[in-house]
């Protein structure tokens, strides 16, 4: 539920925050204000906790992606080195065969 919907519902259920009804005693209006303030603090706390959790999870995901990228690069380097080694071995074999043929 979007945050603004929560505040609209909370405002409607606890009475108008800006212009309290004159039939309610002062103590009741302050109680409604306190409920609104406490609810607002809880929502802010939940939002900040959710943001912190998302930040932590995105950092961990970034680290995993970085590790996987490093592994892939290392694998490509090993594959490249192996291909170079095989090519050099093949070239030396061909040179040997050509020398024997002459």
Automatic annotation (TrEMBL):
InterPro entries per record: Glucagon_GIP_secretin_VIP, VIP/GHRH-like
Keyword annotations of the record: Secreted, Signal
Residues in Glucagon / GIP / secretin / VIP family domain copies: 31-53
Example GO BP: regulation of protein localization
Molecular function per GO: growth hormone-releasing hormone activity; growth hormone-releasing hormone receptor binding; neuropeptide hormone activity; peptide hormone receptor binding
Cellular-component GO terms for this entry: extracellular space; perikaryon; terminal bouton
Signal peptide extent: 1-18
Keyword Membrane found: no
Keyword Secreted assigned: yes
UniProt-annotated location(s): Secreted
Function of the protein: GRF is released by the hypothalamus and acts on the adenohypophyse to stimulate the secretion of growth hormone.
Family: Belongs to the glucagon family.
Name the UniProt record assigns to this protein: Somatoliberin
Organism: Neotoma lepida (Desert woodrat)
């Amino acid at each position: 539920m979007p945050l603004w919907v929560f505040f609209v519902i909370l405002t409607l259920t606890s009475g108008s925050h800006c212009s309290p009804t004159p039939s309610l005693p002062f103590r009741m209006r302050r109680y409604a204000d306190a409920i609104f303030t406490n609810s607002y603090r809880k929502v802010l706390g939940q939002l900040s906790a959710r943001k912190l959790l998302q930040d932590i999870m995105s950092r961990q995901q970034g680290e995993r992606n970085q590790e996987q990228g490093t592994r892939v690069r290392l694998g490509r380097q090993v594959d490249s080195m192996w291909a170079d080694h095989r090519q050099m071995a093949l070239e030396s074999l061909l040179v040997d065969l050509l020398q024997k043929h002459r």
